[in-house]
Amino acid sequence: MGKWQLAVLALGLFGSIRGHADMLELDLISNNVVSVRGAILEWVDGASVTNGRFASFLQIRGVGIAGDYNRGGKRNIQLRDIPMVSLNGTNFLQFALDVRGPTVSLDTIEIFTAPVASVNTNYLGAVGTKRWDLDKGCWNYADQSGPGCEPTWDDVVVQIDPQRNKKHSGVDMLLYVPVSYFVDAQPNDYVYFFCVFGNPPKPYPSAITMHPKGPGTATWGIVKPLHADKIASVGELMAQNGY
User: Fold this and answer.
1) Digit-coded pLDDT (tens) for 146-191
2) Does residue 201 contact residue 115 with C-beta atoms inside 8 Å?
3) How many CA atoms lie within 13 A of 135 on its CB side?
4) Where in the chain are the domains?
5) Which residues contact residue 83 at a Cβ distance below 8 angstroms, ignoring those fewer than 6 apart?
6) What confidence tens digit (pLDDT) does each residue in 106-131 have?
């Protein structure tokens, strides 16, 4: 991991934290479905064949601690491009992961939106409006103990074994994030997806076994629907569903 990536971790993940963390380990090795903070992570047994419909927006390489977000305009993606699915009466935005290599710990996901394309900063607080966080239910980069935000968060670790799928012909995992987190976002807003694999440094000890990222790539993207129904307006969608 480069120095700028460590800076992102230091400033964006825990630079202003003053509380403590609870550990939450999600086993996506023995289980096919786990959930956290309203989102669902589903292992796709056998790797779902996407027939060229997988469109990547973030590829993470490196070993040990490896992370980044889709910065700098190389993989711009707008909210309207992300497929929406309905599960048990709840609408979700669907993200997809194609991952290679040995067992790895998925340690961090933070999803932002911004009205501008090609954001490129090492400070996560300046990326845009945060919409969903794997670890924290509330956040404030300036003051984590501000109004309505407890100075504690969960350290959520998702354990993944890419070798469960012997043939890598498609996506291995699907992440479903409730549309309700994007209620005031606009369809033309750009989506920035920050992710870290491995064991980034944190200001507290962890009892969870952490698996560093090995050789191989981890690629986030979307699976284009067969029937390309675009999200006309997230605000309209929420109003139609009574949110």
Assistant:
1) 455 554 556 789 999 998 887 766 789 999 999 999 999 999 999 9
2) no
3) 25
4) 3-240
5) 93, 94, 222, 223, 224, 225
6) 989 999 999 999 999 988 889 999 99
